[in-house]
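The records we work with from here on pair a chain with its fold. Each token is a code from a learned vocabulary of local backbone shapes. A record is reproduced here so that you can trace the correspondence yourselves:

_____
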Amino acid sequence: MRRIITSLLVTLLSVTAPSLHASMSLDKMIVYFEPGQPPRQDIMVTNPDPENLYLQTEVYKVVNPGQENEERIRITDPDKLKLLATPQKAIIPPNGRKTVRLVSLETPNAKEEVYRVTFRPVVGDIQATQTAIKLLIAYQALVFIRPANPKYDVVAEWKGNKIVFTNQGNMNAVLRNGKFCTSKKDDSCTPLSEGTRLYAGQSWTLELPNAKGYVRYGLFDGQFEKTKIFSPGKS
């Protein structure tokens, strides 16, 4: 499962056409920094438009990721910057590309750190003959910085017709490709439309049609997916 968050900024401008849409694309929306690997990752930004793209990048630390009290705090103090995005500002020509480099300055001790990096188009010089609306769409890349010994550990507890998944590890895992089965035969299995990214230390509750059966999910760590079976009385 990939969670892509886009924010839409609408600005009233004087432009030469009734409406314009400043667009761009990123070659990746999720970035993983693994222990023992180079502490840098590149994201390629492409400008498909016939005019210059004025780009600004912003780094946000995610506190309590995936929870109702999740906060995204923009980091501007150089002494507190643990994730760099360079360049912070760039001009990408029409049909051009620009590499934005992310550099991790830390290896977490307890559990992975989560960031979001915003790629935001800003308004450049405009010559106009009439008034119109220009849409500026910003994208956010999700960034994970893994601890020295990353591992997810997803267990489950059955409560009636509900199953509570808890990640006891120090990194997130995505629960996807789920199925509810009433027997060991494949034709007894029904696909589960629900899945989630389960962050370290968090729980997620899934309600089932009935409790007579078992659940299996693919657990995806960013590179590999392993299938795990969750049965009543077993985690």
User: Anything to note?
Assistant: Confidence is low (pLDDT under 50) at residues 1-19. The two ends are 22 Å apart (CA to CA). The chain is about 0% helix and 55% strand. Residues 61 and 115 are 5 Å apart (CA to CA).
